[in-house]
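Q: Hi! First time doing this. I have a protein sequence and I read that you can turn it into a structure. Is that right? Here it is:
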Amino acid sequence: MNPRTVSTEPSQVIVFQDDNQLRQSTLNALVMEGFNAVGTGSADDFFRQLGLRPSLVALIDVDTPAHNGLDLIGVVRKKSAARIVALTTSNSPSDRLACIKAGADVCLLKPVNFMLLSATVGVLLQRRGRQDSVLNQHQIVSQQLKTTHPHDKSRSSSADCLTG
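A: Yes, that's right. Below is the predicted 3D structure, encoded as structure tokens:
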């Protein structure tokens, strides 16, 4: 990925990490890989940032003492289309499974390998881009079918099948 020089575009990644040093090193690694990223250690600021910027991937540290990371994941899943990466120090399968059940797309073990983190974020962004592209194509086909046969209700289209 090529580093971006313009920071006015929407954030691709938002990082919730209460430890300032870990948050900054994570942000630095993401920016060096070309991602536009913002970070915070406050749940209130995290949700404010998520509302202000259409982040496509949310990295959430589930081990913060001040907040229940699983609850944060659940709220993001309910209120956002962002992909979620849970970061945890627990290697317990039950704890990692709890992250997935709460709504995380991926659960990575801390300390996280930045090459793995970058690859994970990149893949999640690609999947999100493909999903958005399919939805946009579906909307275009639906609109074309409506304008081509606006009064013929008896026709069934492949676009109708996609939404059913």
